[in-house]
């Protein structure tokens, strides 16, 4: 993962310079007279996932601070320039040449120095999810539909108007009229036993209704306060 990118960049630096130069992944600091190329991973940035017909890979951007330390500034500048133009030529690398803020160098505890930022993607390919094969014909079972109507009565057989009637199993809602009547134009016949929730006057009532019997008998639900 990230360590593989570290190794790949270190190998790239060696191939560009064509000489045995030490690469440090530590924050830049004054390391004396020794020639050292700094390759400090400063940021991990978000990146949009790749698009395509396959499952998209996860992707982020790695942002490295590239510096060069040497006994003589001219030598450091020479090496830094070679790395800079080689990175600009690389198809996968992106170079940032904005000035490094002074606060960054203060946080590192070192004097400012010539540097550039190098960005490159890190991808994690994800395997395709297994697809279950359908080895038998698909059977579509249809449930017959019919209407469902009834009346909600309160104490003393008083019709309850504007009561909310819910068939939660089928995600259906209706309201009673002035005579306490409600109507569902289409309701699946199965299951025959329907759970009805009634909300009226700040109270609620749950009833189980035998749908098969509502076709022969009028459906009347008594909303008794004692049952709430």
Polypeptide structure, described:
- With 228 residues, the protein is an alpha+beta fold.
- It folds into two domains: 2-124, STM4215-like (2-Layer Sandwich); 145-227, Carboxypeptidase-like, regulatory domain (Immunoglobulin-like, Sandwich).
- The chain has three helices and twelve strands.
- It has helices at residues 2-17, 73-89, 102-108, and strands at residues 22-24, 36-46, 58-69, 94-96, 116-124, 145-153, 164-167, 172-175, 181-188, 193-200, 203-210, 220-222.
- It has a five-stranded mixed sheet.
- The longest helix is centred in the middle third of the chain and has 17 residues, at 73-89.
- The relative contact order is 0.12.
Neighbour order of strands in the largest sheet: 1-2-3-5-4
Biggest sheet statistics: 5 strands, mixed
Distance between the termini: 62 Å
- Here the CATH topology of the largest domain equals STM4215-like
Assign a percent range to the helix content.
10-25%
* Secondary structural class: alpha+beta
* DSSP strand content: 35-45%
CATH architecture of the largest domain: 2-Layer Sandwich
Q: What is the CATH class designation of the largest domain?
A: Alpha Beta
Shape: elongated
CA radius of gyration is 37 Å
> Helical element count?
3
* Number of domain units: 2
- Helix-strand string: HEEEHEHEEEEEEEE
Describe what is shown at a glance:
The protein is an alpha+beta fold and 228 residues long. The chain has helices spanning 2-17, 73-89, 102-108, and strands at residues 22-24, 36-46, 58-69, 94-96, 116-124, 145-153, 164-167, 172-175, 181-188, 193-200, 203-210, 220-222. It has two domains: 2-124, STM4215-like (2-Layer Sandwich); 145-227, Carboxypeptidase-like, regulatory domain (Immunoglobulin-like, Sandwich).
């Amino acid at each position: 993962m990230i360590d593989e990118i570290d190794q790949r960049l270190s190998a790239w630096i060696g191939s560009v310079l064509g000489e045995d130069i030490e690469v440090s992944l530590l924050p830049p600091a004054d390391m004396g007279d020794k020639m050292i190329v700094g390759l400090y991973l400063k940021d991990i940035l978000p990146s949009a996932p790749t698009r395509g017909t396959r499952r998209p890979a996860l992707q982020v951007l790695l942002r490295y601070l590239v510096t060069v330390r040497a006994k003589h500034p001219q030598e450091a500048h020479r090496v830094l320039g070679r790395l800079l133009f080689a990175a600009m030529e690389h198809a996968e690398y992106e170079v940032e040449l904005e000035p490094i803020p002074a606060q960054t160098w203060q946080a590192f505890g070192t004097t400012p120095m010539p540097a550039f930022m190098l960005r490159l993607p890190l991808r994690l390919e994800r395997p395709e999810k297994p697809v279950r094969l359908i080895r038998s014909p698909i059977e579509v079972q249809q449930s017959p539909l019919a209407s469902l109507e009834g009346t909600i009565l309160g104490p003393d057989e008083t019709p309850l108007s504007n009561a909310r009637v819910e068939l939660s199993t089928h995600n259906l809602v209706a309201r009673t009229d002035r005579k306490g009547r409600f109507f569902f134009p289409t309701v699946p016949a199965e299951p025959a036993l329907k759970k009805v929730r009634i909300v009226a006057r700040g109270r609620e009532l749950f009833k189980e209704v035998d749908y098969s019997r509502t076709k022969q008998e009028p459906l009347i639900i008594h909303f008794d306060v004692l049952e709430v």
